[in-house]
Each structure stands twice: as structure tokens, then as C-alpha cells.
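User: quick one, fold this
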Amino acid sequence: MLGFFKKKKKETYGPLVYLSEPTILYHTHTEKAILEILEEKLGSNNFVIPSDYGLRTTDHLIPDAEIFVAIAIVGKFTSLVVREIEIARKHGKKIYTLDVARKDDEILYLFEEGIPERIEWLTPEETQSLYAAFRGEDFSGFMKFFVGDRKRQW
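Assistant:
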């Protein structure tokens, strides 16, 4: 009866892509930009996006994907992304890296095939320190640049 209130589903196309991203990027402007970049680069909008599942694990979906994309922030893979990369490697998935960094007042996205040597692999403790540094900026400056100004979204 009230079908016009339903959100129209976008038609999916292309291979299934698993997006492995740090939880700090869940539901942010940066995540949306990443999806647009990947759709353009990979010719697919058929994504497994862990943020759609809340904080539940989604690594059981990696074997179903044809392509695995690991998101690095400022040249670092968080411990969650590291764990998922290992699963993707075990299953022989084609792996890409998208490094998200900031230069002055702009965000840079560097998309590469494989896993570059320059990316640092963080332990759970190092990941927590990185997140604390992001949160310590109280959603201003560096953090605000990646996730957007939360105050404007309320």
C-alpha cells in the first residue's frame, strides 16, 4: 500500500567486491567516496560492505568475493584489515589496496593492485593507539577531514 516509501534498489553489476576497511571509516563521507572510486576503477557496484553489518564479523563472506580491496589509512592497515587480508590470501583472492591519506586540505586516494611494501601492518594495540589519536582530535582537523563534521549531520 505504501510502496512509494520504499527505497528503490540500485541495480547491481560487476564482480562481487569485498571491502575491508577500518571501523573508524564506517558510515562516513570517506567511505562513500571510496565506494565511488572503486565502482569507477573496478567496474562494479556489487560490494560487501562490513559497515552494513554493524560490528558483526563479515570475514565469512570473503570466500564468496572475486575481488578483495584493503583500505589503508595514512599508510597503515589496521589489525582488522590485516586479519581479513590473511583470509583473502588463503582463498587466493585478487587483492587491491586503496590508501587514504591527507595532504594539506585534501584527501588523497591511491589505488594499487596488490599490497604495497610501504604500508605498515598494525597490531591490535597499535590500531587502538591510531584510533585514540583520531578521537583525540575531537572530530576536528585530521579526524574531521576523514569522517566529516558530525555536528552538521545531526
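User: anything notable?
Assistant: The CA atoms of residues 18 and 60 lie 11 Å apart.
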